[in-house]
UniProtKB/TrEMBL annotation:
Residues 85-319 form the Fibrinogen C-terminal domain. GO terms for cellular component: fibrinogen complex. Keywords: Disulfide bond, Glycoprotein, Secreted, Signal. Pfam families: Fibrinogen_C. The lineage of its organism: Eukaryota, Metazoa, Chordata, Craniata, Vertebrata. GO terms for molecular function: extracellular matrix structural constituent; protein-macromolecule adaptor activity. This is Fibrinogen-like protein 1.
Amino acid sequence: MMHRLLLLLLLVSFSSPAPRFSDKDVCLLDNNNLRQRLKQLQDLLYLYDLQLKDILENTYHRTKSGLFSGNRSMQHEILLPTTSGNLIVYDQDCSAVYNRKNTKSGYYRIRPRADREPFLVYCEMSDGGGWTVIQRRSNGRENFNRKWDEYKLGFGRFQGKNDEYWLGNDHIYDLLARGESSLKIELMDWHGERRYAVYENFQLANEQDNYRLWFGTYSGNAGDALSAGSNFEDQWSASHRGMQFTTFDKDHDRFLAGNCASENKGGWWFNRCHAANLNGRYYRRGRYKGSHDDGVVWSTWHGMWYSLKYSAMKIRAPFFIDSESGDGENSQGS
């Protein structure tokens, strides 16, 4: 009898119809899907509003986004970008900015590497155009006696054309990693006289090699201070070619008795110690005295005990050919 009862229960369970959703259940499910879809569209609209605001309010950015093209059609499946994504296309350097007919000197956002966030730089469009300025000293308002991480990420003000800053060793490395670059150094003394030095094949290693410095042939009228001039003894102890970057909290120089960055008040590619240091202490009036030659120094022009009024370091691809003359503005301080 028990066996027959169990068999009957099994037959009933197999023959029972599958559960069905009521119209109310179906309506609730559709409503939930529509709510999720609406939330996606609201998030996307908010993201587009932010990017449109960035384009309209920031004069440094003149790229027209393809998002707002009249020919663009909305796809059926909208995939929201990640929070680190950016739908605005940035130029890789100031040469690319110039080649898009943006020939006015000023601050622009560039992005040398697609896998990293864009950052702000000053693009100098005079002097042939397309120069990315990586360092500037002009008024002594910015403290250049900084830690390793600050030199790595960059510091200073990025507003006026004569604001002082260091672009950041990581940013400089990313700019130089794209190919061969020329470095131009512009200098001015306290009498308003200007000089310059150009180095071909300017290179920087990554942080694992402590941003080691390499450069090629020199030309200009300021003298080859990065190579410590023409004296062999000076070159052995003060040339900056092949030197690693040093700050007061991370010592990579060849000075065994101390730290060149601590003595000379700024991060730089010190040997033991230097023939040039554009990140030194900013002395007004030029000539200075002290326990160390720690000024803004370019020794092959004014010697070690003269601190310059202005310096700027800027880079550009050597094969860049300007198609226009630029705005003719000079970024040097007055």
